[in-house]
Amino acid sequence: MKSHSDTTAALPRDAGFGMIEIVVSMLLISLLAIAFLPMLVTSLRVSASTTTLASATQLVAAQMEGLRAADPTCEAVTKYAEDLNLNPPVLERQGEKLRPHIEVVGCPVASLDTVSVGVWVDDSTTTRLVQATTLIFVTS
Q: What are the Cα distances from residue 112, in Å, to 84, 109, 116, 134, 139?
């Protein structure tokens, strides 16, 4: 014959998780998620900034190539710069408008010389994002 203690020992008491264990584990997981949230937001901001800088750098490189492809005369380089500054191509990246600008620093007096050319890209707040300067060999 079975006693009362034998029947209670046969019942599984710890089978599965209880409600308290589930609530505690959800609380710990939510605390970890909240701890990593600022790092995720910061990485998204850095990623957007890096994308904008890469686009601005490509725009500067494209304008430098356009300058190098122009006639090697001071007048052609100056005209290219004036045309670009009057009607700059606008590149929109993530809500920001990127505009290139070119500045030609003086044409040479001699028949063969170099001219200094600065190219930069600014955003909608006219903050210079990327800037490059080069010397172009020109004839007068």
A: 25, 8, 14, 16, 5
The gap between the terminal CA atoms of the chain, to the nearest Å, is: 119
pLDDT in tens, 115-131: 888 998 988 787 888 99
When divided into structural domains, the chain yields a total of: 1
Domain membership flag for residue 6: no
Measure Cα distances from 111 to 72, 73, 77, 105 in Å. Answer: 11, 10, 15, 16
Does residue 80 form part of some domain?
Answer: yes
Contact 101, 126 (CB under 8 A): no
Tens-place pLDDT, residues 50-96:
888 888 899 899 888 888 888 888 888 888 888 888 888 888 776 77
pTM of full prediction above 0.90: no
DSSP letters of 40-101? HHHHHHHHHHHHHHHHHHHHHHHHHHHHHHS-SBHHHHHHHHHHHHHS---EEETTEEEEEE
DSSP summary character for residue 107? -
